[in-house]
C-alpha cells in the first residue's frame, strides 16, 4: 500500500503489445487532473539503473545474473525514487516493474516464480503497485509489431515464440492471482477504444484519491 493520496501505477505486457504508445497520453491525462507525477521505467529509472539497463538488454549473461541485476536496478529505483515520491504523496507511473521479472525471468526464462518472489519481498518488503495495466495481445500480433518496429532490437526481443508464449502465460497467471490490482487491456483494438477504457480506469483512481477526473487527454490520432 502507498501513502494516502499517492498512487503507484505500473504498465506491463509483451514486447510489441503497444503499452509504450499510451504512456504520454496517460501522463497528460493525470497531469491535467492536477496530479504531481513521477513517470519512470524499468530496468532503469536512476543513473545506476540506466547503466544496468544497457547491460541487461544487450550483454549475454547467466539467468541468475540477469535476475539479480534486474533486482539491483529495482532496489536502487525503489529506494531512491519511487518510495520517496510515494511517501511525499506523489503519483508514480512506471513502465514495467516486478511483474515483468515474474513474467520474463520466472516464466519466459524458466526460472520459476519462487526466486523472484523471494527477491521481491527482500527489496519491496510487502509494498508494490496499486494498479497494474497489463496490455495484452496474441503472440502473433506482438511479434508482427516487433518485426516492423525498431532499428535495434534487444536480446529479449530476439527470443523465440516459445519464450514469449511462456512470458504471456506468466503475465496472465499474475493477473488471475491478483484481480483487484490488475486491469487487462485488450491491446488489439484501436487507440480510441483502448484510451476510452484507460480513461475510465484512471478516472476511478483519481476519484478514489480525491481528484476530479481530467476532461480529456492528448488527441488519440
From TrEMBL:
SUPFAM superfamilies: P-loop containing nucleoside triphosphate hydrolases (SSF52540). Residues 11-197 form the Thymidylate kinase-like domain. One of its GO terms (molecular function) is dTMP kinase activity. It catalyses: dTMP + ATP = dTDP + ADP. Its EC number is 2.7.4.9. Gene3D superfamilies: P-loop containing nucleotide triphosphate hydrolases. Phosphorylation of dTMP to form dTDP in both de novo and salvage pathways of dTTP synthesis. This is Thymidylate kinase. It comes from Castellaniella denitrificans. The lineage of its organism: Bacteria, Pseudomonadati, Pseudomonadota, Betaproteobacteria, Burkholderiales.
Amino acid at each position: 500500500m502507498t501513502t494516502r493520496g499517492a498512487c503507484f501505477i505500473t504498465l506491463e505486457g509483451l514486447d510489441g503489445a503497444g503499452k509504450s504508445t499510451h504512456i504520454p497520453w496517460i501522463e497528460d491525462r493525470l497531469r491535467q487532473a492536477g496530479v504531481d507525477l513521477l513517470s519512470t521505467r524499468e530496468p532503469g529509472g536512476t543513473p545506476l539503473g540506466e547503466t544496468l539497463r544497457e547491460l541487461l538488454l544487450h550483454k549475454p549473461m547467466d539467468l541468475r545474473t540477469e535476475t539479480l541485476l534486474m533486482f539491483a536496478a529495482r532496489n536502487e529505483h525503489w529506494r531512491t525514487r519511487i518510495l520517496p515520491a510515494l511517501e511525499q504523496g506523489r503519483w508514480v507511473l512506471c513502465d514495467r516493474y516486478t511483474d515483468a521479472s515474474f513474467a520474463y525471468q520466472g516464466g519466459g526464462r524458466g526460472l520459476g516464480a519462487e526466486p523472484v518472489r523471494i527477491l521481491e519481498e527482500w527489496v519491496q518488503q510487502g509494498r508494490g503497485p496499486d494498479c497494474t495495466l497489463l496490455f495484452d495481445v496474441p503472440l502473433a500480433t506482438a511479434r508482427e509489431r516487433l518485426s516492423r518496429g525498431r532499428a535495434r532490437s534487444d536480446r529479449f526481443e530476439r527470443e523465440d515464440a516459445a519464450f514469449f508464449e511462456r512470458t504471456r502465460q506468466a503475465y496472465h497467471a499474475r493477473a488471475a492471482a491478483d484481480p483487484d490490482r490488475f486491469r487487462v487491456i485488450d491491446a488489439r483494438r484501436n487507440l480510441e477504444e483502448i484510451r476510452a477504457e484507460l480513461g475510465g480506469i484512471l478516472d476511478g483512481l483519481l476519484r478514489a484519491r480525491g481528484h476530479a477526473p481530467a476532461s480529456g487527454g492528448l488527441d488519440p490520432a
